[in-house]
Amino acid sequence: MTRGRFITLEGGEGAGKSTVMAVIAATLAERGIVYEMTREPGGTPLAEAIRALALDAHWTGVMRPETELLLVFAARAQHVRERVLPALDAGCWVVSDRYTDASYAYQGGGRGQPAERIAALEAWAAPVAPDLTFLLDVPVEQGLARAFSRGERDRMEREQAEFHERVRAAYHARVATDAARFRVIDARQSQAEVAASVKAELLRWMDAP
Ligand code: TMP
């Protein structure tokens, strides 16, 4: 049995991830690939419960960065063991809307948690690395405007623009250290252009020897 491949999708707030998740799903389906779509924090009932706690705007100004970091990794530990690894082991591909890069970006860049601390949690709690990661890159102001137009803001969306600038910079730092894994997509483009870029990059990657 060939192990499934693990694809992740990342980006700041309002980058247009939902549309891209659908494009990835459609492209895999066209090729007859068996896949599962999931998200982080979340992806299992317990991990979704942790997500609700971690993002609840009620804890704005209360939740400490350390608590937040441990919560996103608690959700991930559950998700990886209950869902991601069993699927990959069964030959199924897994596409996750966010994964560990989001922790380096939000808890690392955004909250200032040391990268070594995140790496230690990753080695222990998330023992599988993505094979391919799409980063949807959009200027903070444009992304936040899109996210805010959706209504009710969660705890992250309530953060200042500077926080989101640090998140964006941290994503770019991740790309710099692991360029072969990332495909950076300019998410200022129209939805159709973003969709076409993602599809082309995905097919190229799948067809690579
Ligand atoms: P989203 O599904 O709309 O992207 O919302 C998830 C939020 O959770 C988003 O603000 C990013 C944040 N997040 C972290 O802060 N750390 C993480 O490790 C993950 C996976 C998400």
Question: What is the compact description of this entry?
Answer:
By secondary structure, this protein is an alpha/beta fold.
Key terms for this structure?
209 residues, alpha/beta, Rossmann fold, five-stranded parallel β-sheet, 8 helices, 55% helix, 13% strand, binds thymidine-5'-phosphate
Distance between the termini: 19 Å
Question: Could you give the count of β-strands?
Answer: 5
Bound molecules: thymidine-5'-phosphate
Rounded mean pLDDT is 97
* Structure classification: alpha/beta
Biggest sheet character: 5 strands, parallel
- Residues in helices, as a percent range: 55-70%
What's the number of structural domains? 1
**Beta-strand level of the residues, as a percent range?**
5-15%
According to CATH, the fold-level topology is Rossmann fold
Q: What string gives the helices and strands in order?
A: EHEHHEHHEHHEH
Q: Rounded to an integer, what's the Rg over CA atoms?
A: 16 Å
Strand order across the biggest sheet? 2-3-1-4-5
